[in-house]
Write a structure and sequence with these properties.
Blueprint (H helix, E strand, L loop, with lengths): L1 H19 L4 H8 L6 H18 L2 H17 L3 H17 L5 H21 L3 H18 L2 H17 L3 H17 L3 H18 L2 H43 L4 H60 L15 H21 L8 E4 H10 L10 E5 L4 E4 L1 H18 L5 E10 L2 E8 L29 H11 L3 E4 L7 E8 L1
Parallel strand pairs: 2-4
Antiparallel strand pairs: 1-3, 4-5, 5-7, 6-7
Helix pairs in contact: 2-3, 3-4, 4-5, 4-6, 5-6, 6-7, 6-8, 7-8, 8-9, 9-10, 10-11, 11-12, 11-13, 13-16, 15-16
């Protein structure tokens, strides 16, 4: 017995020692270097780690370090050096006599992926496509589900990068459906977030907008799936109990057991119904609050793709290298920032909105002061606000009101009026109203002004995202932003807020 215990302990110690030595000292040193601060040092250490692993016959670990070094080469546009290093890695894989063909295929896959990513960065679509096909062959040879998942992800990036949105949507749907079917909702959410983050880092606004649109639709539908899962589990539980009751119905003891089971079942059902009612009520309340947001997103998904595809060519990574004083460059940069703002608003949880006590009258006066020099001659600017304190998120409310006031200053003719008002409707509800005597917005267009990507704009005169961003901010604060249909002397926007 003692001998067996000794063998087990000795085996555990050996396993721990092997695990601890999985990473060489050179690899640990490379990972400890901040590549953003000293990319050359990190790259050199990864190359040395690759050579060290290759010399020891530890090809898989060597490939991991080698491809990281290659990525650090082309990060500085050193493509020749990167290709040469990847060629050496392929040679090391082929020279490994211990690895099976499927293992070699798996390692060749990651080397080929780095080449594909370089060609994407160089905007060489044909070469990138060729390597993507090679990756698919290696994934089949390796018979590794992880590689198949990564291949779908790589295909999505390729298609979105080169403006093939339909193909990208099809591939991404396969990947999302696969994870959703296995109820790995968190992984689906993580894939969406990763694609959006990659698009932002690469300056690919088309990819960001397309992925963000798909993400909104998926996120809205997932709540219904979760409720269906809960209902299915409850139905199964009821069926199981009914089967148990039927089996024990042949004798007096079974009848007694049935009575007990029915009592237990009744209690379970009562509790389940209470929980289900709470979940359903919360879902209904949430659906009502988000109804306008969901409708807005669903109606404009198709429009977003068309709009973004028309301007995608202007948002290449080289944009920042152009003259930033140029009006077109400024407009495109501002459009890119607006896209990111919309995405950030969607990903910001409502419970993160911080409220602070604010004196209403000074707050309104400060906003009016910022537009006094922007109005036309003879325009009368008024403030009608009570001397009181309310809780609000100053960042979002200031952004919304200042945008509305600046628009009023632009569209109000000489001799007109611009007015900012505050009204307390109930202990927990109040309004900010911005009105002007400028041009009246036609009734059929009042809903459209809050929809992003509805039409193509001349970006130098505005991208049409100002009011949609304000609308999203209002909804995020548990409020709403609308045009007052009863105001006939011009245009009046009403910001409703609920504390």
């Amino acid at each position: 017995m003692n001998r067996k215990l000794f063998v087990i302990l000795f085996s555990l110690i050996c396993c721990c020692a092997i695990y601890a030595q999985e990473k060489s000292e050179l690899q640990k040193q490379a990972e400890a270097v901040d590549a953003s601060q000293n990319i050359a040092k990190a790259r050199s250490l990864y190359i040395r780690a690759f050579d060290d692993y290759a010399a020891k016959g530890q090809t898989k670990q060597g490939v991991e370090c080698g491809v990281k070094a290659a990525a650090l080469y082309y990060k500085e546009s050193l493509y020749k050096e990167s290709f040469e290093l990847l060629r050496r890695i392929d040679q090391a894989i082929n020279a490994d006599r211990k690895a099976a063909n499927s293992q070699k295929a798996g390692m060749h896959y990651w080397v080929t992926k780095e080449r594909m990513q370089m060609y994407i960065k160089m905007r060489r679509s044909e070469s990138a496509k060729e390597h993507l096909n090679t990756m698919e062959n290696y994934a089949k040879q390796a018979s590794d589900e992880t590689l198949n998942d990564d291949l779908l992800y790589s295909k999505a990036i390729f298609y979105y990068t080169f403006g093939q949105n339909a193909e990208g949507n099809a591939v991404f749907k396969v990947m999302a459906d696969k994870l959703t079917a296995s109820k790995e909702y968190n992984k689906v959410d993580e894939v969406y977030q990763t694609l959006i983050a990659n698009g932002r880092r690469s300056g690919n606004a088309s990819m960001v907008a397309q992925t963000y649109s798909s993400y909104i639709v998926w996120k809205d539908s997932i709540n219904a799936l979760k409720v269906a899962d809960q209902i299915g589990a409850l139905n199964k539980q009821i069926a199981d109990h009914e089967a148990t009751i039927e089996e024990k119905d042949s004798s007096l003891s079974s009848r007694q057991a049935m009575i007990v089971s029915l009592g237990i079942l009744a209690a379970i059902l009562a509790g389940a119904l209470v929980v289900g009612a709470i979940i359903l009520m919360r879902f209904i309340v949430l659906t009502r609050k988000q109804k306008k947001t969901i409708n807005l997103a669903n109606e404009t998904n198709a429009l977003k793709a068309k709009f973004i595809s028309n301007i995608a060519a202007h948002l290449e990574p080289e944009l920042k290298k152009l003259d930033t004083n140029n009006a077109n460059v400024k407009a495109m940069l501002e459009f890119s920032n607006h896209i990111q703002t919309l995405s950030d608003l969607e990903n910001t949880p409502s419970d993160s909105i911080v409220l602070e006590e604010t004196q209403v009258q000074p707050f309104c006066e400060a906003l009016i002061d910022q537009i006094r020099d922007k109005v036309k001659n003879g325009v009368n600017i008024t403030v009608n606000a009570q001397k009181m304190s309310v809780s609000l998120n100053k960042k979002y409310v200031s952004h919304i009101l200042l945008h509305l006031l600046e628009n009023a200053a632009i569209y109000t003719p000489e001799g007109g009026t611009v007015c900012l008002e505050f009204k307390k409707r109930s202990p927990h509800t109040y309004q900010f109203l911005v009105s002007d005597t400028g041009q009246i917005i036609p009734e059929e267009k009042r809903e459209d002004v809050f929809k992003p990507f509805l039409e193509i704009h001349d970006l130098t005169t505005g991208d049409g995202l100002g009011l949609p961003i304000c609308k999203q901010m209002a909804l995020k604060m548990n409020g709403d932003l609308e045009i007052d249909p009863k105001f006939t002397k011009g245009t009046r926007f009403v910001l409703d807020l609920h504390v």
